Amino acid sequence: MTFTVAIDGLAGSGKGTLALALADKFNLAYFDTGLLYRGLAYIALDEFGEDFTKTNVINIAKSFRVNTLKESNLRSPILGKYASEIGAIPEVRKILIKIQREFKEKSPSNKGIVVDGRDIGTVIFPNANVKLFISASLEERARRRLRDFLTNDENISYDEVIKQLQKRDQRDKERSVAPLVAAKDAHLIDTTNINKEETLEIASSLVAKKLSD
Ligand code: C5P
To answer: What is this structure's pTM?
Structure first.
């Protein structure tokens, strides 16, 4: 069975940074599943503008090919907002389950995979070897997001980032299908007061332990 690390958590919690670092350290293949939802948002906006419908998105998802989009085009705050709206459409989630599970079957690393998102440990890979749930305070997450946005020349204020994160947290936690929740057997890591190296250390010891079992 492919060794699987499932990482879930809130926007800006540091889960993406951690996932990438773990993949690098243990030579595992990495999949950022948020890019699927962002990719659908990108295509929907491009083809239909802001008035795209649920049916438009479902049709796009049906013929969706990962790897056809450039990641650097998908990181904007506006795509985060539309991605979370799209993530609340049950039909879309159903289609994307298949793509995510295929990644495991066709994994480019024979050592295993690290997958991050919102429902990885609960829905996509409920039998994952290691499950992590990453959180941080709203204010700290907003500071991190703002830093990323400013680095990418996005013109946005701290207050606006706080507002967007609150809306996104609420939508992700309250949607009817696959809401964001920690799996019962997930290890919780609060990154509010620790840096990325410390976070990696905590997660690495959990992964190393499972790998040696
Ligand atoms: O992680 P990221 O900020 O790129 O995700 C964008 C949005 O995509 C999230 O707010 C969430 O609504 C949705 N998403 C999801 N399930 C995942 C990954 C992302 O619903 N596995």
So the answer is: 0.94
Q: Looking at the DSSP assignment, which residues form a beta bridge with residue 5?
A: 114, 130
- Structurally, what CATH architecture does the domain formed by 4-212 represent? 3-Layer(aba) Sandwich (3.40)
Task: Compute, in angstroms, the gap from residue 117 CA to the centroid of ligand 1.
Answer: 6
How many angstroms does the Cα of residue 104 sit away from the middle of ligand 1?
Answer: 19
Write down the pLDDT at residue 72.
85
Most ligand 1 atoms within 8 A of CB, residue of 8, 13, 78, 84 to mutate = 84
pLDDT digits (tens, 9 = 90+) for 9-47: 999 999 999 999 999 999 999 999 999 999 999 999 999
Can you say whether residue 166 is alpha, beta or left, with left for phi > 0 and alpha for psi between -120 and 50 degrees?
A: alpha
Q: What is the pLDDT of residues 96-153, one digit of tens each?
A: 999 999 999 988 777 999 999 999 999 999 999 999 999 999 999 999 999 988 888 7
Q: What pLDDT is attached to residue 190?
A: 97
Q: Is a pLDDT exceeding 80 seen at residue 66? A: no
Residue of 20, 31, 36, 37 best suited for mutating to test ligand 1, as the one with most atoms within 8 Å of CB = 37
Residues touching ligand 1 (Cβ under 6 Å) are 11, 33-34, 37-38, 80, 83-84, 87, 117-119, 168, 172
- How many angstroms separate the Cα of 202 from the Cα of each of 21, 22, 42, 136, 152? 12, 11, 35, 15, 29
Give the dihedral sign, CA 107/108/113/117.
Answer: negative
